[in-house]
Specification:
Elongation Factor Tu (Ef-tu), domain 3; 25% helix
């Protein structure tokens, strides 16, 4: 049998490149950021679930960690925000979606003039806008058109 060193070297480089890609994939998909926990209470959570993004002005600043009902039957959404992002106390939270059929995400918008007061770990954002489904919006338009 004839030894073919070219195939052996090519196989070694293929294995090396695939291991590098595997390492990069694991490294990119591992969340190494430190976070702090916030929460918001909604009347209607509208399809938000654990793992959905938390965005501020379109930029991802965290992830939804838990959605549950409290004793008063409000939908409580716990979410984590990266430590380097400071969320003002005067902020509004709403559930939004990426397009008509897109994923839901939690949108945090700073409001008011006092942006110096910052939320700390385990605090609640009081100002929320409840989720409005497409059906709710269409019924409002029909109601306004019939008046």
């Amino acid at each position: 049998m004839k030894k073919n060193y070219f195939e052996s070297i090519l196989g070694f480089f293929t294995l090396l490149v695939s291991l590098i890609f595997l390492f990069k994939f694991v490294n990119v998909n591992t969340d190494n950021n430190e976070t702090y926990q916030l929460k918001a209470k909604f009347l209607k959570a509208g399809g938000i679930s654990s793992g959905n993004d938390v965005k501020m002005r379109g930029v991802k600043i965290g992830v939804v960690s838990n959605v549950y009902l409290d004793n008063d039957y409000f939908a409580v959404v716990d979410f984590q925000v990266y430590k380097q992002i400071l969320v003002p106390k005067e902020s509004t939270v709403k559930i939004a979606s990426d397009g008509i059929l897109g994923n839901k995400y939690l949108s945090v918008t700073p409001t008011g003039s006092n942006l110096d007061e910052i939320l700390s770990d385990n605090q609640e954002i009081e100002e929320v806008e409840d989720f409005e489904s497409i059906e709710d919006q269409v019924s409002k338009i029909i109601f306004l058109a019939t008046q």
